[in-house]
Design goal:
four-stranded mixed beta sheet, single chain, 3 helices, Immunoglobulin-like
């Protein structure tokens, strides 16, 4: 009797877990199918560490991170603090001068991007690619203007940089 009960419980648990996995796969499939930006970002993120010389790439990334750290110390840091709409980037609205460098750092446990949404071809656009927790992205603004940016993985996360002439 106890063995029968154990088998039934194990079967029910297996069915529930299988249903959860299948449901998750279906949801992820729908998200990936409906948003090509997410597909491209994930593909780029996955390709970063894949290949014959992935050990060399990791070493290059570490050395790049070290050089970014010294750059980070020189510029203004914007922290990515979470998926909270206009409060996701801190500070959100920031005013700088032409030639200044901004540095974004992902302090959240979720991956995020910093992507310019400007349609004006005169103003340079930027895209950090996917930033995992602790990763950084820097951009030097060489033209005056207002730069709207967002996270391609969480489009409700928005920020603004106002660049004034020196």
């Amino acid at each position: 009797m106890i063995l029968k009960t154990a088998i039934i419980v194990a079967s029910v648990v297996a069915v529930v877990l299988t249903s959860m996995v299948i449901g998750g796969v279906v949801v992820i499939g729908q998200i990936l199918k409906s948003d090509p930006n997410i597909r491209n970002e994930i593909r780029q993120w996955l390709e970063r560490g894949i290949g014959e010389d992935s050990g060399r790439n990791l070493q290059e990334e570490r050395s790049s991170s070290a050089s970014q750290l010294s750059t980070m110390e020189a510029g203004t840091v914007i922290n990515i603090v979470g998926n909270s709409g206009s409060n996701s980037y801190s500070p959100n609205l920031i005013e700088i001068k032409v030639g200044d460098t901004l540095n974004w750092r992902n302090d959240d446990s979720s991956p995020h991007t910093v992507t310019s949404s400007s349609d004006n071809n005169i103003i340079a656009t930027f895209d950090s690619g996917i930033l995992m927790r602790g990763e950084k992205f820097s951009f030097t603004f060489d033209r005056a203007g207002e730069y709207q940016y967002f996270c391609t993985l969480h489009p409700n996360m928005v920020g603004t940089v106002v660049v004034t002439a020196t």
